[in-house]
Amino acid sequence: MSVVILGIESSCDDTSAAVIRDGVLLSNVTAGQAVHEEYGGVVPELASRAHQQNIIPVVDAALRRTGIGRTEVNAVAFTRGPGLLGSLLVGTSFAKGFAQALGVPLIDVNHLQAHVLAHFVAEEGVERHFPEFPFLCLLVSGGNSQIILVSSYKDMKVIGQTIDDAAGEAFDKCAKVMGLPYPGGPHIDRLAKEGDPERFKFSKPNIAGYDYSFSGLKTSFLYTLRDEVKANPAFVRENLNDLCASLQKTVIDILMGKLAKAAKDLRIRHIAVAGGVSANSALRQAFVDYGVKHHCEVYIPKFSFTTDNAAMVAITGYFKYLDGDFCDIALPPYARVTV
Ligand code: KG4
């Protein structure tokens, strides 16, 4: 008998629903939220209201595209956290109601685990290139920068993480002071293509172990801008490409430095990247180069699996379903990981 999982993701500002049958993706529908653009960041209250408007059409479209009737769904998987509580509540409540109406089990999914397991989403007609266990996963997003040792679908250990800002946050905050729209990461990526990455030097952290820090880089970036703008008010506009390229190179050097150290120490030859920042073209290239240089197998996600999506929630739900790992309907969402 085949297993059909409906996945629901609503942790931040994307409402997404996906259907997976026996680990193969049948549909993945995401509605973004333009409402935040003018505020330069995600406004939690507006996000949860937009989720309320989007959730039914998104789930409906995801099911319709598969041609699978809702009664064929074997379980409903939803992102329980971490994320924005109001946003999570919408997806959680909808998943609970839907599962109860269908009389099928409910599966809670950790958003970060789902980002890692996005690498195991199979697609019809697409060659499978799944990571081999154990592997290291660099999880880089707007809220997280972690190095995770993945020993199985369930066994994941965070061996390094940021002690302050996340990599995506560093991109977004520096982009903001350069007057770029939110989120700044994709704009920096685009502008950096025409810039000189060696033009400016920003400070890099010196932290023991595999942990990251990006607040020093952010401060050194701000000080450079402040000093230069005093002398030339048009400095940012005239040097935008070089600033973006130099900032991007520094972030990637910091990320790859710790990852390489962990891979060497633990003698791991399978390395993956996940999360919103893994859409960055220079970071993707750095992974390819790393693989060639160190004779390692690298795993880079499809663009549609880098940012928040329900395909990764559904695949995590699928593995949990096979283990009979279901959750109680009374389980509340959580904003932060507390363990
Ligand atoms: O995983 P994600 O979609 O969700 C949150 O953590 O909220 O990651 C969003 C982050 C943002 O900081 C955004 O600027 C960054 O991913 N991002 C990028 C690129 N695309 C998205 N950063 C650099 N280059 C990109 N191409």
UniProtKB/TrEMBL annotation:
Keyword field contains Metal-binding: yes
Molecular function terms from GO: iron ion binding; tRNA N(6)-L-threonylcarbamoyladenine synthase activity
Residue ranges annotated for the Gcp-like domain, each copy included: 25-314
Subcellular location: Cytoplasm
Record has RNA-binding as a keyword: no
Annotated binding of Fe cation, by residue: 111, 115, 308
Named cofactor requirement(s): Fe(2+)
Superkingdom of origin: Bacteria
Enzyme superclass (EC): transferase
Enzyme Commission designation: 2.3.1.234
Catalytic activity: L-threonylcarbamoyladenylate + adenosine(37) in tRNA = N(6)-L-threonylcarbamoyladenosine(37) in tRNA + AMP + H(+)
Cellular component terms per the entry's GO annotation: cytoplasm
InterPro entries to which the protein is assigned, alphabetical: ATPase_NBD, Gcp-like_dom, KAE1/TsaD, Peptidase_M22_CS, TsaD
Family: Belongs to the KAE1 / TsaD family.
NCBIfam families named in the record: gcp_kae1, T6A_TsaD_YgjD
The name this protein goes by in its record: tRNA N6-adenosine threonylcarbamoyltransferase
Native organism: Candidatus Aphodosoma intestinipullorum
Top-level taxonomy: Bacteria, Pseudomonadati, Bacteroidota, Bacteroidia, Bacteroidales
Gene (name only): tsaD
